[in-house]
TrEMBL record:
Protein name, UniProt field: Amidohydrolase family protein
UniProt source species: Streptomyces axinellae
Top-level taxon in the UniProt lineage: Bacteria
Domain Amidohydrolase-related, first and last residues per copy: 50-404
Pfam families: Amidohydro_1
Lineage: Bacteria, Bacillati, Actinomycetota, Actinomycetes, Kitasatosporales
Length: 408
């Protein structure tokens, strides 16, 4: 699409300001002007619709788009796994998510295929495989399977869930390998998890010294480390080691939140996956025992969100959906809107997530010079945030100036 003018929409620009009626001019994939324009170009009538920046999901798992247990039991072909990954990527874009941060599961080939336009999908930043300690969270091999065989579950260029390390030197080797394979940041598991095979939520994993190795390697490439962490001891270890972001933060207490705030460490809560595991564990391809792990996590995470807000932590937004049921990614905004306000949820999913991803001013805002990532909604999601939950309400999606969905 060349020069174009989107006219008639109520514009919510991602800054937190109230909506305003502005025409938005797009040229060469970027926003060039807000307000009436006399320049030539295509006119896109958006009367009665609400415009937001393209949404950002800061915690996705495209590589876990197939049922989890069959996936890691060699019961699904590489062709079917690839089909599931790319279907999920396309569905994310259709739901209004023009940028996502993949926090473990895909290899660099997926990022490249989407970036080249060979398959439909959002802009993807990826950590490649998650970095885990031997026997820790992120390992889903059978109990009898030797750790050294775990890498045989990887499919080069497509998916690689995790790498196992037994000490700091092995971790250093693994993170360098992850960067070689296209990672743009790193993720470590420093506690047990809800979807865990051999660990508990109360477990801490990796020492401060080991986590610091990953931070050092990331800093050498001008990027950062985020960590999967549910308990406070694991979070404190990670903050001490120099990480920049915490995923989940389920049990966050006030003293740990104060430490995060002092070190400017961001938090990405993940409510949608908890809802998913409580209501459709089997649909994710997981054993019913996983439901027991999820019980109580919602209440804890709700308290942790309030604690983080009081501490002044930068709080992003991530869905963490797993398995085939990833079509309603916007449910994360609806859930957050019920705990905060719809505007706060939207800002978290746009401007704040862009800051966390290192893309501040480039995406997540409607302002001259930013990428023309725009979503037109059938209704006003500030008045009815459930609109975010249904992808059909995203009637027009523009990514980098290109119309990628049009239901008008």
């Amino acid at each position: 699409m060349g020069a174009a003018h989107v006219v008639g929409a109520a514009v919510i620009d991602g800054s937190g300001r109230d909506p305003s009626n502005l025409d938005v001019t797009i040229e060469n994939g970027r926003i060039t002007q807000l307000g009436a324009s006399s320049a030539h170009g295509e006119r896109l009538d958006a009367e009665g619709l609400t415009m937001t920046p393209g949404l950002i999901d800061a915690h996705v798992h495209l590589g876990l788009s197939s049922p989890i247990q069959p996936h890691f039991s060699f019961q699904i072909s590489a062709a079917e796994i690839a089909a599931d990954i790319f279907a999920t990527a396309g569905a994310a874009l259709d739901a209004g998510f023009t940028t996502v941060r993949d926090t473990g599961g895909i290899d660099g080939g997926v990022v490249t295929a989407i970036a080249k336009g060979k398959v439909k999908g959002p802009r993807v930043l990826s950590c490649g495989p998650v970095q885990c300690q031997i026997g820790g969270h992120g390992y889903y091999g059978a109990a009898w399977e030797p750790t050294e065989l775990w890498s045989s579950h990887h499919i080069a260029g497509l998916c690689a869930l995790s790498m196992m390390a037994g000490n700091a030197d092995e971790l250093r080797h693994n993170v360098r390998e992850a960067f070689r394979r296209g990672a743009s940041f790193l993720k470590l598991c420093v506690t047990g998890g809800v979807v865990g095979a051999h660990d508990r939520l109360t477990d801490t994993q990796f020492t401060v010294e080991e986590i610091a190795v990953a931070v050092q390697e990331a800093a050498a490439r001008n990027t950062y480390v985020t960590v999967h962490a549910h308990n406070n001891e694991g979070i404190r270890n990670a903050v001490e080691a120099g990480v920049r972001c915490v995923e989940h933060g389920t049990g966050l207490d006030e003293s740990t939140a104060a430490l995060m705030a002092a070190h400017e460490v961001a938090l990405v809560p993940t409510f949608a996956v908890v809802e998913q595991l409580l209501h459709d564990t089997a649909g994710a391809g997981l054993a019913e025992s996983t439901r027991d792990r999820a019980k109580g996590a919602r209440e804890q995470m709700t308290k942790a969100l309030a604690v983080a807000k009081r501490a002044g932590i930068r709080i992003g937004l991530g869905s963490d959906l797993i398995g085939p049921a990833q079509g309603r990614r916007g449910k994360e905004l609806s859930l957050r809107a019920a705990l905060e306000t719809p505007m706060e949820a939207l800002v978290a999913a746009t401007r704040t997530n862009a800051e966390i991803l290192g893309l501040s001013g480039q995406v997540g805002v409607i302002t001259p010079g930013a990428q023309a990532d725009l979503v037109l909604w059938n209704g006003n999601p500030l008045e009815d945030p459930e609109l975010f939950s249904d992808p059909t309400n995203a009637v027009l999606v523009i990514q980098a100036g290109h119309i990628v969905k049009d239901l008008r």
